[in-house]
Amino acid sequence: MALIISDECINCDVCEPECPNGAISQGKDIYVIKPSLCTECVGHHDKPQCMEVCPVDCISIDPDHIEDQADLYKKYTQLIS
């Protein structure tokens, strides 16, 4: 499952540097997560680091990009190769 940032984002800039895959970037109004790069930190960390550091809890699972752990790990291995 890729993650998504809601419009509750306060643009605090703490999530972007935490993403090991470079999936988070500044969008027009708020930060955004590129689903093709988001592995929920599978392969890097036990928990999604963006969710761990977000002070307003505005990051959640994106219902439009559902993936299981195996899919996320496969994406991770493709991104590091």
SSE blueprint and pairings:
Elements: E1 3-5, E2 24-26, E3 31-33, H1 49-53, E4 59-61, H2 69-80
Antiparallel strand pairs: 1-4, 2-3
Give a brief outline of the structure.
This protein has 81 residues and is an alpha+beta fold. The protein has two helices and four strands.
Spell the H/E element sequence: EEEHEH
* CATH fold-level assignment: Alpha-Beta Plaits
Principal-axes geometry comes out as globular
The second-level CATH architecture is 2-Layer Sandwich
pLDDT < 50 runs, ≥5 residues: none
Structural domains: how many = 1
The biggest beta sheet is recorded as: 2 strands, antiparallel
Alpha-beta classification: alpha+beta
- Please work out how many helical segments DSSP would assign: 2
What is the helix fraction of residues, given as a range? 10-25%
The CATH class, by name, is Alpha Beta
The chain-level mean pLDDT equals 96
What's the gyration radius in Å? 12 Å
Separation of termini? Answer: 21 Å
Count all strands and give the number.
4
User: What topology, given as strand order, has the largest sheet?
Assistant: 1-4
Strand content: 5-15%
InterPro entries: 4Fe4S_Fe-S-bd, 4Fe4S_Fe_S_CS, PSI_iron-sulfur_center, YfhL-like
Domain 4Fe-4S ferredoxin-type: 1-29, 31-64
GO molecular function, one term: 4 iron, 4 sulfur cluster binding
Cofactor: [4Fe-4S] cluster
Structural commentary:
With 81 residues, the protein is an alpha+beta fold. The strands form 2 sheets. It has a two-stranded antiparallel ribbon. Strands 2-3 form a two-stranded antiparallel sheet. It has 2 helices and 4 strands. The model has no long low-confidence stretch (mean pLDDT 96). It has a single domain (3-80), classed as Alpha-Beta Plaits (2-Layer Sandwich). The chain is globular, with a radius of gyration of 12 Å. The chain starts with a strand and ends with a helix. The chain has helices spanning 49-53, 69-80, and strands at 3-5, 24-26, 31-33, 59-61.
